[in-house]
Amino acid sequence: MNEPLYGTPHAHGPLLGPLSPPLVRSTTAGQPDAETLRAMGAGERPGEFYQRLGHQNGRAFESLVASHEGADGAVAFASGMAAISGAMAAHLATGDRVLVAEEIYGGTSAFATTDLVRFGVRVDRFSALDLDGLRAQLQRPAKFVVFESPINPTLRVVDIAAVAKLARAAGALTLFDGTFAPPPVQWALRLGVDLVAHSATKFYGGHSDVLAGVVAGRHELLGPIEAWRRRTGAVLAPDPAWLLLRSWPTLLLRLQAQQEAALVLARGLADEVRAGRLVEVSYPGLPGDRDHELARRQMGGGGCVVTVEVAGGLPGARRAFDRLQRIARAPSLGGVESLATLPAFTTHASLTPAQRRTAGIADGLMRIAVGLEGADVLLGDVRQALQG
Ligand code: PLP
Asked: In whole numbers, what is the pLDDT of the chain averaged over residues?
């Protein structure tokens, strides 16, 4: 976390007017004459024209994300799923093949297996934790390899550089879902992926009050994605874009504080394992974690989510969940409020207990997305919840 803190966003040169960016809701922009209208309509002149084609609040957010991620550019969407689905759809055609990790966000999985398949794209699955399996899958041409790390909810860590290298050698593009760990926790583009997508609803928004998505990468890959967004109208609206600009100056401070608290929480909860109230604490920032060495190589810390397995399986996890007093019972992550969920009832509810066990998702898992209440408060809350 040695990167400089960002100040008030001024992505388009020094601000001459208001210090904080104005919110511009206008759906259209006045043009001075016919020649300007012609040039803008023909795409020869940049600037404000019509909101679906791009607008200043959205572009300011995109510039910040691009510089933060170390990308040529970024394209912002109305949600994380619009960004992920758009990034794939913009580059795929009937007959193409994509490799989608088994361990991926459910919405991404559903889009691939329902919609891409409907349009004649072949979708094959692989485990992002099994590089030999991926190598074998890449013997046949694939257009995309889609994966995430740390994996939800187990917080297993994927060797991002190794996956990117295998895919590149086989001529496949990598689309990485970086939602769980934006820079500086993890620089996915530096590790070699071609495109990184985020649910900006999470850390970029940071306050559980904005739904947004963004994809960043090289210009030549973003061009078709931006064109897809224009044609489908999946653009991020000015109001959420403005909220993202509002959240930006505190991004690094929030990530730093949330990550520090997550480490303290994970460490403290190790006592609960010794006491038999927890079966396991998963957090890649913990020296004892099975993926700690890999996390140390590719992450700037262990991230802001801690997953615990409560003793007593699902009944045990339910009891602890219901007893939480400070941590809110709600899906999502990345906000200033700490949130807890039970994967057996949410992300993995459609699997049978046996299928969940095969996928490494114990029924007693409780995922805690760490916010800004302070590590002592959170540790105290989980401890009292486990006493029940
Ligand atoms: N990717 C991950 C890892 C997520 O957790 C989520 C949402 O929870 C998404 C993508 C989808 O993002 P959104 O809800 O903004 O569409």
From this structure: 93
CA gap 181, 193 in Å, rounded: 14
Neighbours of 140 (CB within 10 A): 11
Identify whether 96 is a catalytic site residue: no
Residue 323, Cβ neighbours under 10 Å: how many?
14
Measured from CB, residues less than 6 Å from any atom of ligand 1 are 79-81, 105, 107, 148, 152, 177, 179-180, 199, 201, 211, 213, 332
Overall average pLDDT of the 37-65 stretch: 90
Kindly give the number of the ligand 1 atom that is closest to the alpha carbon of 200. 15
Query: Which residues, at least 6 apart from 250, have a Cβ–Cβ distance to it below 8 Å?
Result: 206
* Whether residue 252 has pLDDT greater than 60: yes
Of 156, 202, 246, 318, which one is the catalytic site residue?
A: 202
The residue whose C-alpha atom lies closest to atom 13 belonging to ligand 1 is 80
What pLDDT sits at residue 68? 93
Q: For residue 282, what are its two tokens?
A: 């998963």
pLDDT at 17: 65
Pull the structure tokens for residue 156.
């297993």
52 is catalytic: yes
Radius of gyration of the chain (CA): 22
Quick check: is 202 catalytic? yes
> Residue 349 pLDDT more than 90?
no
Place of tokens 């055609």: 93
Mean pLDDT, residues 143-171: 98
* Angle at which helices 56-69 and 238-247 cross, to 10°: 40
User: Does the pLDDT value for residue 6 go beyond 70?
Assistant: no
CATH topology of domain 34-250: Aspartate Aminotransferase; domain 2 (3.40.640)
Cβ neighbours for 271, distance < 8 A, ≥ 6 positions apart: none
Q: Which CATH architecture group holds 251-387?
A: Alpha-Beta Complex (3.90)
Before 150, cis peptide (omega within 30)?
yes
What residues does each domain of the chain span? Answer: 34-250, 251-387
Is the pLDDT at 203 greater than 80? The verdict is yes
pTM of the complete model beyond 0.85: yes
